[in-house]
User: Which sequence fits this backbone?
């Protein structure tokens, strides 16, 4: 009844090659090329990102502090209450 998923269409004149997952290396060049590449990318973008993040964090903490201060009651308003 109908075509199976792998045989939905016939493609002619196209050659495809594949390698079995059992023949591939899981982590080729992981330590020799991967870790140095991560370090290079981190150091190249750190000085572009870190100042903005630091500035944003300082503004965020200052705004939260001011907001908490504005929510407090002024004790001078309640001196004459009984």
Assistant:
């Amino acid at each position: 009844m109908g075509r199976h998923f792998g045989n939905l269409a016939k493609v002619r004149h196209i050659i495809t090659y594949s390698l079995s997952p059992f023949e591939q290396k899981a982590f080729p060049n992981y330590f020799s090329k991967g870790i140095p590449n991560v370090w290079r990318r981190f150091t190249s973008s750190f000085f572009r990102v870190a100042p903005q993040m630091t500035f944003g964090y300082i503004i965020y903490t200052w705004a939260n502090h001011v907001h908490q201060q504005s929510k407090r009651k002024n004790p001078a308003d309640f001196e004459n209450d009984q």
About this structure: The first helix runs from residue 30 to 71.
